[in-house]
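Hey, I was hoping to borrow your eyes for a little while. I've dropped the whole record in just underneath, so have a look:

——
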Amino acid sequence: MSDHRIRRPRTALLAATALALLAPLTACGGSGGAEDGKTLRLWHYEDKDGALGKAWAAAIAEFKKTHPGVKVVFEQKTFEQIQQNAGMILNSDKAPDVLEYNKGNATTGLLAKQGLLTDLTAVAEQRGWSGKISESASVTARYDAKGQMGGEKWYGIPNYGEFVLAYYNDDLFKEYGVDKPTNLASFEAALAKFKKAGITPLANAGNDHPASHWLYLLALAKADQKWVDDYQLYEGKVDFNGPEWTFAVDTYKKWLAKGYFEQKDVGLKGTDMTEQFVSQKRPIMVGGNWWFGGLTTDIKDFAWSAAPYPGSAKTLGSGGNQWVVPTRAKNKKLAEDFIDITMSPKIQRLIGEEGNVPLAAKPEEIKNPRSRQLIDAFARYQGSNGLAFYPDWPVPGYYDTFVSATQNLMNGAKPKAVLTELEAPYTKFLATRR
């Protein structure tokens, strides 16, 4: 299960109810009568002013142009509406033909296991989608018979990626003569130089995902692909007292003691962390690309840049949420045609130009220079199998465990006790899978 969904800003819409989920909120008709009586029914939950909302609107317009006799009914939903009621609705004759849905074992994987989603493996190969998406970005699109991600069958098609990277206040780096870091040692050297100048270097938020993301990033500094697969895909035993997690909690504790981030950050939320960076109180923020658009809008008075986090070869990230086709969809071929348009060069470039990360566009195709920084960074991770998912994914409810454990560490708990806190629910969940 992924709790990552609650970490990204979403447009506030009406509260989710099954009744509301069945009722169209907006509808768009094709230019003529329905060809052969066909209608494409499509759901998504993206803000119309965001990069993805603009891309999906352009894809709908392109679909209408290429299918002039087909009626298109688009229904704007909230993320929560689809998340909470998808199983019930997709098992009825009210199922749409195609919808945007959350990736992960407890979402796409669960519906696939229940037989509610169409197996897209053959069409993904025929239409070339599978060849456009890297192995690491496709893991959350593929599931096995148990609904476990990383299987052989494609049940979703992601169009964009998400990942954690470093954001730098270039003006403060220049003012204090700090070199941009290229590895963990030079990253720590930059932290030390800022701290010596009286500046707390790292933005952070203990009461939200950023602090626990740090734990996983630090573990990844000592991890290889086998460790990631063992932890995320249950392919082998994970030692919570091994070098990976031990390095993470020890380094986190050391950075707290050195003042690289502050203990008072323990109660902050993710938006508080971004405010630390935007207000120039902290020169470095390590966070998701989902903050990128807001930073672009909010930062007016200093130069900043984005780059891969230099402390490890892997980072938190995955393919984004994805298009799925319900088993009970009435017009699956039309759904496939729409997905194909979202994977086209035109729509993929639009995603990139608007500040998100397209999975099927090359960085050099994007003209927006700031967006190129983001896409270049993601391309490096995709090319090296560097997306290691998120720390809370392996266990249902694990997100809350990570927040609690990290806060305990910030409040003075011993590293060994924090590792025990993280290990207990993981071990308990594994026992239920046997």
User: Anything to note?
Assistant: The chain has two domains: 4-159+320-361, 163-317+389-433.
